[in-house]
Amino acid sequence: MIVMRIAIARVRALFRRDATTDEIREELQFHVQMRTDEYTRHGMDARAARQAALRRFGNLAVIQDRGYDVRGGGVMETMLQDLKYGFRQVGQHRSFSIVAVLTLALGVGVSTALFSVIDAALLRPLPYPHPEELVTLNVDETTQGSQPSRYAPSIADIRTWRNLTTIISHAGNGRVSGFVPLIVETGAPQRLTVAEASEDFLDAYGVNPILGRGIQLDDTREGASAVALLGHAFWQREFGGDPHVLGRDIRIQNRVVTIVGVLPAGFFNDTAVWQARQVSSAWLDNRGSGTPAIARLRPGVTLAQAAAALDSVTPPSTMMGPTPVPARVVIQSMYDDETEQFGPTIRTLSMAVGLILIIACVNVAGLMLARGATRDVELAIRASIGAGRGRLVRQLLTESLVLAIAGALIGVLLAYASLDSLVALIPLSLPANSPVAINGTVLAFALGLTVATALLFGLVPALKLSRAPKMISTMLSVGGRSGAPLSKRAGQWLIGVEIALALVLMTGSGLILRSFAKLVSVDLGFDTANVVTLEVEPLDQTAAMRREYYVSLANELRRLPEVVSAGAIDQLALTGGGSYAFPTADTGANVEGPQRTVLPGYLEAMGVRALAGRLLENADLVSGEAVVVNVTVSERYFGSAPIGHTLRVGDKNPREWRIVGVVPNIRHSGPEGRVEPQMYVLPDPHVSGPFSMTLAMVMRLRGRESVPLDRLKQIAEAVGPRVLVGRARPAAAVLGEHVAKPRHRMLLLTLLGVFGLLLTLVGIFSMTAYAVARRTREIGVRLAFGARPAQVVGVMVRDAVWPVIFGLLAGVAGTYYATRIITSFLFQTAPHDPATLVAVVALLGAAACLAAWFPATRAASVDPVTALRAE
Amino acid sequence: MQRPTNSDQLHGTLDMLVLKVLESGPLHGYAIAVRLERMSKDVLNVEEGSLYPALYRMERRGWVASAWAVTETGRRARVYKLTKAGRAQLEAETTSWLRLTTAVAHVLHG
């Protein structure tokens, strides 16, 4: 009954906003009128009677307001009232609000930014129709008694599978980028990313050309006229979006290719041209081309069903000898294939960002508690005039919400502003076709987060403070100004929690930082300082002409006064790739290791010295027989005396290499790479035909000299008629790119660690400052009774130090579990590296004590007389 | 629906007196104030208006119910009456009050 009545009253108030106010006003007016009538009956004149009645009644407006507080309007009205009050509170305590809002902005900002990455990487990595139907396909061939070898399916496999029309709707293969970007000529030659695809490849993605047609079966036959589709961005850039581009020719290396279509925007934007992949009939059955196969399953077909069906039609392999090798189809959802690499990084970042968010919330909770402690009189009064505990909790939560919304607005703006830098820093190869953006999903997340944070940091203080009214008599008896220990315990808890969380976060950052320091301090065996690399490619030339060109260019560069030494290499150190050689030594040993084709001067330019024998010289180019090996080859195959020995390589056109020198082990593949038996060989002078050897020039400059790119370009063009000059980069930049991911990971986590530390310090500082402010009288008394300032500081700091110590202990325990998730990112660093832990504990502990010490010293400088007069 | 009276003495006393006044029948706020005045000079000494928040609070707790009515002088007034819960509350308060005063009297008279 009662509940019903209250409910009805509330609903009525909701629709008739001022009904409650009107009722109260009328009722109170009635009372005043009755009293006035009584006084007039006793002979007072009307005006005096009314004045007396009002005086007797008390403050009409205040009582009306209090009455309203108790009766309460509708839900909406209360909320508006709370909001208004919340805003007033936020506006009145400006420094509190600024700290709280900025803290929350930081927490919400980093969370939102990270979520936008998660959104792109995990929620919508495949922006194609029905991405769940997309699969990648491979074939495992298992020779008896050995591990299965995984190969990309052959074209014949794909065509066979495509016939299973109840299982597969489309299947094809393609490679988004070749081994190297190819030269495309529209007007001027450019090095661009060129993809190749079979028929049905684009159909499987569900992507349709916006102009022209896709790649058809006939285009992929040997000898068919070469056709290609243009990527949207390239079409815009190079052809100005010309709709009549179809039928025009472009040159890709030495082939003339006809444009038959244009792809839509957003489909592999970095790929300029999609060529039809032509496979000669002899290679149709060849597995292991390295070109990935994809397919689209019929709706509702499961991976297991598809695998079983595909297996039943997949023939064993007869490539490896007379015994057929059984083949099994490996089918994986494209989503898993695309996203499994993101797991560890996203888990790590989510954890770091989550910690920051929680620290931010704890911080604001502490601030609210601290400020709340000075508000207990106000709250007690509100309660004594009839506000129930629920009402007080709601009021305090609304204040939290006001803070959270303000924080979130700034946070989302921060996220928006820093998104590009974040994406540049994120150590992930994000999906090519789903750019990171602050979209509806991300905003919805931010909104949810805002409400969640408001509850998280608002609930504890709200529950705690709404109990204040119980203590009203205590408080009033001491003047309501002493340091009622209302929130001391809670504040200490919060400091402890904050320290523990910050310790976990900072230990993670510390480990990554230490690991990165180890990574970059690895001796690579070469010196990148003052070394410049230049990518140059002569066009339309035979192998012999190219070789001549590079040799002449190296000689020209060597003539420059700034250049100490110059050479060239087929694969720049730290850029990955490169080929292996399997020569047989004259001792009978089968040598196996990476082979680098270089021009004389390369090793000198990289600052490599011969340990034995000599380095390569221009005179060696004539026969091309001289080879320099590293220490590993020397020790492993020649008992450390390799000079003069020969290596024989190749079956059809065998070459013989004569070892002329030994150099130290050079980590061509970077600090985390293995040291392998390495051979530095010269270009084969006998190779003829169109084989296109591409070298990168490497030169060491004198001191701090530099050579402008224009000048290099001029020289490169002067040596040969048609050359494509690519990037000129300092070798240090190449190294920098190589360790970009670990560096970005290090930067991001260090940044997050610093945020965590700062937030924690702000938290401890402000909580101590409030505690000190509340205890001014106590401090005054202590000082008046002769306590030394140092003792007062000690008392104040001690209140903060114990929670810090407990927080550190709990944090150390927490790191034991938390740092496991970053194990895969650590280089020569244990996840429980004691040095890192000790350093972080010391740093955090010292900083925390300082943060408590500063406000405490302020307390000790209080003049006892002033402090006591404050009462 | 009976709640423990955990508010301070001022509230408790005022509430109890209002309930007592309403025991004899429904009254509007002014009439309650007049009766209270007669019963005790002190309770509403400060501000008569404080009666109203107290009435609203008791209404929310379900001890009193109210409705608009027209007085004999033709004015619209809000009239309060005791509910069943209010009666029970009054009884409980009275008992505990008597127990307290008896105890105090005991102490005082040794």
Total beta-strand segments of chain B = 3
Total domain count of chain B: 1
Flag low-confidence runs of chain B. Answer: 1-8
Number of strands of chain A: 24
Annotated CATH topology of chain B: Arc Repressor Mutant, subunit A
CATH superfamily of chain B: Winged helix-like DNA-binding domain superfamily/Winged helix DNA-binding domain
User: Mind describing the biggest β-sheet of chain B?
Assistant: 3 strands, antiparallel
List the helices and strands of chain B in order. Answer: HEHHEEH
Q: CATH class of chain B, please? A: Mainly Alpha
Structural class of chain A: alpha+beta
Would you write up a description of this structure?
The complex is a heterodimer of chains A (871) and B (110). With 871 residues, chain A is of the alpha+beta class. Chain A contains 27 helices and 24 strands. In chain A, strands 13, 14, 15, 16, 17, 18, 19, 20, 21, 22, 23 and 24 form a twelve-stranded mixed sheet that branches. The longest helix of chain A has 37 residues. Chain B has a single domain, classed as Arc Repressor Mutant, subunit A.
Summary?
The complex is a heterodimer of chains A (871) and B (110). Chain A is an alpha+beta fold and 871 residues long.
Keywords:
A: 871 residues, alpha+beta, twelve-stranded mixed β-sheet, six-stranded mixed β-barrel, 51% helix, 15% strand, elongated, B: 110 residues, Arc Repressor Mutant, subunit A, 55% helix, disordered N terminus
Reconstruct the topology from this structure.
The complex is a heterodimer of chains A (871) and B (110).
Chain A lengths: L1 H14 L3 H23 L4 H12 L2 H12 L3 H18 L1 H30 L10 E8 L7 E3 L3 H8 L5 E8 L6 E4 L3 E9 L3 H5 L5 E2 L14 E4 L1 H8 L9 E4 L2 E8 L8 E6 L16 E5 L5 H11 L13 E7 H6 L3 H31 L2 H9 L4 H37 L14 H26 L6 H6 L10 H34 L9 E8 L4 H17 L3 E7 L9 E3 L2 E2 L7 E7 L2 H4 L6 E2 L12 E5 H8 L7 E4 L5 E9 L15 E3 L14 E6 L7 H11 L3 E8 H8 L1 H35 L1 H9 L4 H30 L15 H27 L3 H6 L2
Parallel strand pairs in A: 5-10, 7-9, 17-22, 19-21
Antiparallel strand pairs in A: 1-2, 1-11, 1-12, 3-5, 3-11, 4-5, 4-8, 6-9, 7-10, 8-9, 13-23, 13-24, 14-17, 14-23, 15-17, 16-20, 18-21, 19-22, 20-21
Helix pairs in contact in A: 2-3, 2-4, 5-14, 6-12, 6-14, 6-15, 12-15, 12-17, 12-23, 14-15, 17-23, 17-25, 17-26, 18-21, 23-25, 23-26, 25-26
Chain B lengths: L8 H15 L3 E2 H11 L11 H10 L3 E7 L5 E7 L1 H25 L2
Antiparallel strand pairs in B: 1-3, 2-3
Helix pairs in contact in B: 1-3, 1-4
